[in-house]
Structures are given as structure tokens and as C-alpha cells.
Hints:
Blueprint: H1 11-21, E1 50-53, E2 57-61, H2 66-87, E3 95-100, H3 103-107, E4 122-123, E5 130-133, H4 138-157, H5 169-180, H6 185-196, H7 215-247, H8 254-259, H9 263-277, E6 303-311, E7 317-324, E8 329-336, E9 342-345, E10 374-375, E11 381-388, E12 391-398, E13 404-409, E14 414-421, E15 427-434, E16 437-444, E17 450-452, E18 459-465, E19 471-478, E20 481-488, E21 494-496, E22 504-511, E23 514-519, H10 530-535, E24 540-545, E25 550-553, E26 560-569, E27 572-581, E28 584-591, E29 597-600, E30 626-628, E31 635-637, E32 643-647, E33 653-663, E34 668-677, E35 680-689, E36 695-708, E37 733-748, E38 753-768, H11 771-785, E39 792-795, E40 798-805, E41 808-810, E42 813-827, E43 837-850, E44 854-866, E45 873-875, E46 889-891, E47 893-906, E48 909-911, E49 914-916, E50 919-931, E51 940-941, E52 945-947, E53 950-955, E54 962-966, E55 970-972, E56 976-977, E57 981-990, E58 997-1005, H12 1009-1015, E59 1017-1023, E60 1026-1031, H13 1034-1037, E61 1040-1045
Helix pairs in contact: 2-4, 4-5, 5-7, 6-7, 6-9
Amino acid sequence: MRLRRLGTLTLAGFITGLGLTSMPLPVEGQTPYVPYFGKNRVRYERFDWHIYRTDHFDIFYYPELEPHLERAASYAESAYQRISADLKHDLANRVPLVLFKTQSEFQTNNIAGELPEGVLAFAEPERRRMVLPIDEPPDQLYRLITHELTHIFEFDIIPRGITGSDIPLWVDEGLANYMAGYWNPVDLMQIRDAALTDSVPRMSRFEAMPMTGRLPYSMGHAAFEFIEDRWGMEGLRQFLFSLRKNVLGSGETAYEEALKIDAGEFDDQFDRWMKDRFKPFRDKQRAADYGRNLAPDAERTPFVSVLSIVPSPSGDMLAAVVGNRKDLELDIVLLSAYDGQLVRNLTSGFDQKRGFEYIGTAGGLRGNLVPWIAWAPVGDRVAYFGRAGKGKALLLHNVVTGNIDSRFALDTVDSPESPTFSPDGRYVAFAAIAGGVTDIYVLDTTSGALRNVTDDATADYAPTYAPDGASIVYTARVGGNDKLFRLTLATGAREQLTFGAHDDTAATFADARTLVFTSTAIDPAADVPIEVVRNANVPNVWTLDLETRELRQWTDAMTGNVSPVVLRQDGALRIAFVAYDKGENSIHAITADTPVATVASADFGGPGPVFDFTAPIGHTLDRNNIHRKGAWERMMLAGRPPLNLGITSNNTLYGNTQVTFTDLLGDKEVSFYAQSIAQYRTTALTYVNIERRLQYALQAFLQDSYYYGQDVTNSGALYDPRIAPFISRDLAESVRRQRGSTGFVIYPLNRYSRIEAYSGYIYMDEGYVNPALQEQAEQYQIATYGESLFRSGHMIPLGVSFVNESTIFREFGPVAGRTFKISYDGSPAFGRRWISRQSADVDVRQYVRLASTGVFATRFKGFKSWGRNPDFNYFGGNSEMRGYEYLEFIGSQGFFVNAELRFPLIEAMLTPIGILGGLRGAFFANVGGAGFNGQPFDFMRTHGEAYQPIVGYDVNADQTTWSPRLGDPIDLSGPRLVNGRASYGFSLQSFLLGFPMHFDFSWRTLFNRTYEDAIFRSCAQTSATSIDCRPDGSAFRKMKFDFWIGYDF
């Protein structure tokens, strides 16, 4: 696959990226655009990278890959020669080809962002590199390399402009599939279905949408075959180079310039071509011909796209792997095998609460052509694989209790798939990879012992036990096709069971002599035109009699039937399977009584030599072209620098960007970070090393941040309370200047938790921007505390944090999970000019999902600093304390609590200018407060008291300060916030233009109206020496509107 250019960054991609390159910086953006901590990408191994140079590639590998290096180089050079010859184009520079031994190691790479389970490889437009594991069978690995190398040629032919006009996904992926020269049965099934159900998209306007899977790949593949068929290879080449001109600003479309037709005519001709191509299949069986659909109802349940099924021992129920559109995860559900009624969701909720990240799927392009789950013949357990840490674990899930009874960590093998139980339930066989080769392994569930039972050079998949437990039937990839083999466990003897130039897989036993499986075979006795054979490759349900070697075909599908299983009901042979029709998967069951065709196995051939795939062009390894990768070798710009913009709730614009240079493997980074908020700047130069599990970084920085040192509660903490009435918010603007350098480390304990630590040297200076106020405040603070609260001096901070992030995100922010960060730092004193302090900070958040995308979000953040020069924190506004001014609260100790009920109002808005982001609402409540050490901090009172309100101010004898004039006492009773503050209200959030915009409607409160009227007042100067005030809390209680841009906590 290609990696799209990093333009507008999605939230999910940003969050997962945090764990890759973000470190616990002492210097961070003053107002974070994305206020989350991020999960970890754990680097379980450190790779000793070497580079092998060939004619057209720089192959990056580590010593464990050396036995496969010559083979991989021959595949790459063969692919280059073919693509270059077909496109009549050469690349100016060698292509960086980064190889990993296994899929799990590939997924821990530092090169790209988070990689989903189904990503087999990728290529990048900016750095023109290919990254892939080598754990596929030889012929499929060659096609995978060809696919990714095609992307590199595409990037060279069609520039990816900075203005952002993307090439349609079907062009990039379709050409790559076309050049690979192979139709996967599932891909061919998709386009055949689209052609025969009048669902061929108009390619000139076709864009990939969520849940479309591989449809852009397969439709694009078909479109390029259409172009070659109508205009030849020269027309195909002209189409690509015309796309290049379009990107660079040509007036004509590629269709008009290269193919001499407009886009609409191209779409019409392609539609007709597709229907003609698959016309011979239109009268074959459709899913509806098999009777009742046993899959969950997508309209009444959240379950869609059933993928793999397995029956219970009694045949009364089916366990099915399905997509959950609510959770956006795979689930395993129990269904009635009679009417499809949903019995139970075994994996309800998010997978991480059960101790694994996600349910494992079959690797490569096998998809659901092989089984994913198994049901024990005795007991009530279903077996499947779940991602846990670096690899996957075998999970035995009790269908009665709903609990996972056993977990088996499979640390010695990689990419396990297709579990199957032995007849006594003690052993579980499955396919897995070791040393770059897929074999069949057997796990003893009583002892945990694991052994390789095939241990050969071929790729082996999809095992199933014979009813007597003495043998295993499995699929092996030989001669470019999948074939069934039988292994006798006692002797290790192997026997090939099926033959021919088609694929046979997913076998299961109907009885001791009958195998049920999926096959793409066509009756060799049938008179079938060659073009029909080329367009077939249809998975159908077949059986094999192991005694007579008679093959029987039971379905003749228009599109395809996969995942066949045997239902033992009432003594009759019933076969259930997953059918694909009209773009959807369904479950059907048939009674095997009248076969479509009966064929002797010998008609497809017989035993003979097994030939493995060899590359068209051979390659001999030249050790003189190998060298160990240098520490700074192949440094480059890490993509286009991102630009994040936001607005605080006091309408201050802020933004940041980061220019990063990285080595080609992403292990080392040098970055320059810049943020601006109002007139204050932060810049940092950082070196990050993330090639090991223990990561570290060095940073030099300059940071100016601001806050408001306004004494809003008139406590006399910062300046003489007699001048408090005259200190406006703007006058109280303060700046903190920091200069220094730090070093820090991060150690991820697992995917969700990590320890961070840092130290360094910082020079700090802070104070009011207004010189006169700064002078008065400093004199007051020295007289009151013995020294200034504002700090100026040197410091050597020593800090440590524990971070846990298990939050599940959607495009709008958190939807479930929790996160917390507990931090401590201290700065020892080495003299009076050295700042001495200790600080502790706790930030805890919890998200409870309601329905699909509703969220009840809570947050507690508390902090305290002590010592000779205690730190102080500032907060307020945005999502911290809605309704209050931005950074209104300040103190050396404090806390705030948020509670928000967030819910969707409009999922998306269709407008004349396109589809805009949705609209969400939230009811919120906040409470918190802050104060300084040594000053009274009375958060709340409940007892009755007499309170004398301020009714005016009179000038003092110095003619510069004022003293408050107190009025008659007011009796107060009931709970009331004294130094604390609270608010509540309603918020609207929209992603117009891709930015999270908030419109907050807030009401502030102290929970006591009488008290509010007493302490808040409206004043007017009545003479040169007198100001009169009257109690009035209406301005405080008045609804306050705020607009800001940024993500919620």
C-alpha cells in the first residue's frame, strides 16, 4: 500500500504517533492542541542494521535476515526490470528497501505511524522507500515487492505536490496490483460481484470510503486491465504521464489527453466492459439461492461483514467473527445454526479490557480463505488469537461463563493463525512463522509445550485434525497454488491430497473419510472458454473422499463461498459457509445431497516433484556490497512539516510547527520546534533516539510563556490588596522566560504504561510585564514572605513521571478508557541564586462510552509545589475550567475537576461545498481553585457567618493607594465556594474545515446567590477621593460565551 502524504493530521494518527516520537519534554506548548499523553510503541528488539547495495536498491536488513537476502534481492531486481520495461521508465536513484523478518517486527518499526493488522507493506512518496516483512510465500513475496515498487515508480512519474491534490487511491493501488500480475480470489470475487450486481463505481469520481476494504485495489486493477485492453500498454503509459501533467496544472484531464475520451465516457465504457467480461457468470448461484441468511441483521445489530465461522460440537450454534461498526473492532458472536438468531457477543466491549489489543486475523492475502477460530470438541471453549505485546497469544474463551479460561503466550513463533483442536481437546494446532517460514505447530494445552510438526521449506497453513487424531490435513503453498496435504503425526509422513493449477484450502472433516474444503477448481471435463477460466478463480465448496479420491463440487457461485464448516444436525451432512453477494457477506447452509459436479482427483493430475517459485532474474550475493549502517547515514526530512493552529477561549491565536530530520529507519531524529501564542515564542532543538526500548533525547530550548497574575479573590497573595480593584486582567499579564537544556529518557513498560525521567539546566526569570506593577508587587512580596514569589535564577530539575494511556479514540476525541499521569520533580539549591523547590502533579481522566459515540468524561488535575521557591501553575478557560478567563487561576497549589456528558447531534453535514464535519454537544460542570503557600485557602464553607461586604474605596493619605470601605454585616448560611470556583453549561463542537471548534455557553456559580451578591459588586467613582460600590452578582452569573479551537481533554 502507499502511505498518503501527511497533510491534515487525523486525531487517531496523531495520538498513536505520540508514543513513537514524543518525549516527556519539560518544555511543551503552553496550550497543547491535542492534550493527550499517547500510547507506546514498544521496541522489543534492537536491530543491527546493515545495507546491501544492488544495481537499483539499497536493502536495509539485520543479520537474522541474511539467509534470505539473496532471494529478496533477486525478487526486487526482477520486479524492477519488469516494471521499468512495461512503463519505459527508470528511476534516477537506488530505492531504499527496508526488510523485516516477521509481521510483528514490521509493526514495531519507527518509520511510519500506527499500522493496522492488515497492512502487509508500504511505500512512501516523500522518502521514496519501501518497507515490508519477508514472511510471505516466495511467489506472493515477489508480487508484494512488485506492488510496492510500482508505488515508487508512480511517485517518480506523478509528483505528489505540496498543494495537496492527491491521486485517487484506485490509481495508485490499482496500478500496483496490475503490475503484480495476479488476481487474488477475494479481489476477483469483489469485482465480479460489482459487475454482475450493477455496482461498478464511476472511476473518475471513485474515492475510498471507510469499510470499503480492498475495493479500490481490485477496481483499480480492473480499470488498468481495461485501459490495456482498449488502448494497449502505450495508452496505459500515456494515461500515467497525463496524470503527471494534471498534477502540474495541465488543462485537459488524463482521460481526454491520453485516451481521447472524457471522464464520463470512460466510466460508461468501463462499466460495459466489466459486465461483458463477467457475463458468463451471471446465471450462476447467488447467495439467496442457498436459503436463509444466518448472519446477524446489520440493521438491528451493530454487526456487519461476517468473516469466519465455526460450528459448536452439536451443530446447534455457530461462532462467527464479525465486524462491529459501533466499536470499530472485530467481535466473536454466537448464532443459532437454525435461524441465525444472535445468542451472545462473546467479546462485547473493547478488546483491551480483556487483556489484548485486538482479535488476530489471517496474514497475507489469505483473508477468510482460511479459518480464524476453532470450537473445542469437548468442553465449552472457543480458540482464537489476540494481539498482546509484541506478538499474539492463544486465547481459550469459555462460551458459558464469557471468561477467557487460558492464555498461552507464543513468544517463540510469529503470526499464529487458524487454530484447530485435537479430537480430545488437549492439543491445538495452528500455523505460525519461525525463521521466515510458515509451518504447522501443535500446542499441548496441559503443559504448554510447543512443537513444529511440518518443519519444511514450504509455507503451510490452515491445519485440521482427523477424527482419530492421528493425522493433520493442512494447506501448503506449492508451485504457486494452495494444495491440501496430510501429515501422519506418528511418522511425519506427508501425502499430497489435491492437485491442479487452482487453490484448495480451509479443509475440515465431515467424517473419517470425507474432507470439506474451499476450492477454485473448474471441472476439467467441462468445455469452458479460456477467457472464462481467466475470470473465474471462484471459491466454491468441494468435498474429497479420502478412500476413493472422488471430488464433488457442491456450490457453483457467481461470486464465491468461503469458510466452509460441517453442521452435524439430525444425521444429515449439512455444510455452512460464508457467501459474498452484493458487496456483503452472509452465512448459509446447504444439505449435501446433489453435487454440481463429480470429478476424479486424478483428472487434476497426480503426485510429482514440488517446485518452488524462483525469480525471473537470478542474483548472486556480493559481500563486498554490504556495510553496517552508519549512525547518521541517510538522514532526510521527515515529511512535510505539520502546521497546527488554535484559538484560546480569550481569542488568542496560537500555532506550532516542527521540522524534523530523521534517518531512513526513523530511529534517530533531530527536530526544530516552534510555537507562538500572542507575542510569546517557544523554540526547541531536540535530538531523539528511539532505536531501543529505552529511549532518550537531548534538548536545548528558549521558552517565553505568559499567564495572568491577577488576584481575582483579593487574597493579597501577589500584591497589596488595596490596589487590587485597579489591577485589570491586561495589566496583570506576566511572562515566564526559560532558557536551558535537558536530557530525558522514557521506558515503555508495555503498550499502555511508561516511566519518564528528565534532568538538565534551566535559567528562569519571571514577573509582570508592566514595570510599575512588577516593582510594587516585588516590594509587597518581600515584605510579606521575605522574598519574591516570582523566581529568577538557575535550577537543575530532576523529574520522574508514570504515565498510563488506555484511551480509545475516535475522530472527535476520546470515546472510552482512561489515562493518568503522576509526576514529581525537584530542584536542589546550590546557593541563593539557585531555585529550590519540589512539585507533585496528578492528572487523571476517565471516559465512559454511552451508546455508540456518547461519552461521560471526567477529569481530576491536582498539583502542589513547596520549598524555598515553589513553582506555581496556571489554568482556566478552554476545556479546563469553562466559563472562566483563560489562565485565570494561579497558585502553588490547586486542583480542578471536570465532568462532561458529550453526545452527537449531527454525524456529518452535507453542504454545497461538500461534506463538513459533524456537530456534537456537551453538558459540562467544572469546579476548582488555586492558592499560594502561606496564604489561607478556604475552598468551601458550610457554616453560617456574618460577612461585611465592600461598599466602596477611599483614597489613603499617600494619595496613591485606596482602602476598602465596609458595609453592614450580611448573614450567610448554606454551602458556598470561598476560594473555589465552579461553572456549568452547554457546549457545541464542530469539525468545520477540519478544526475542532468549540462554542461554549457557561454560567459561573459559587452555589450561593446571597454570597455571590455580597462579594461581587459594581463600582463607580463618585469623587476624586471616593469610589462607591453596590453588591451585585448578576454580572458574575450572566451567561458567558467562549469560542476556542482545540481538542477536549
